[in-house]
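Risk mitigation, structural track. In case the binding assays with zinc ion fail to produce interpretable data, a predicted complex structure has been prepared as a fallback.
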Amino acid sequence: MLFSGGQVLRSNCHQFVFKKVDLEKKRRKVCKKCGFVDYKNPKIVTGSLVIKNKKILLCKRAISPGYGKWTFPSGYLDKSETPEEGAVREAQEEVNIKIKLQKLIIVFTARKKNLIQFVFLAKHLNKTFKPGIETLDAKYFDYNEIPWKSLAFPSVSYVLKKIGKLPQNLPIFHSFNKD
Ligand SMILES: [Zn+2]
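Fallback model:
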């Protein structure tokens, strides 16, 4: 298959063996035909906590995982995108809002999911919001109205608990082993 960049997808090539690469100690999945190394680098997620009049914007997910549950706007980074650009794009896609990022507040590592997540504090610039196709509903919640039992992921409840009392030293780095 030929892509616009002229890149050929060698979908039938790989025949993996486990072996050491360069001077590394651990064994990795390496294609014995083309030498491709399957490094399994973490995926990167980026998102924002949009606060307005002391209320927090949450979205009800229209996709799995976490269908029908609440989260703040976030998603996977696109190719060559910065975490800041990704957070702004996700807010636009999920709730049709323009945001201005204020600061990076949390960096998560979800070890089991092999995923890193950036969370920014953000300001809502335009007046309105409207759920996008990946969102069933969107709403600004008072802190004491947060639907704690219907949050999409453990990382969402962690972030929302943390912002109840923001520490001086930001960002917070945190690892999840089970998420
Ligand atoms: Zn190969």
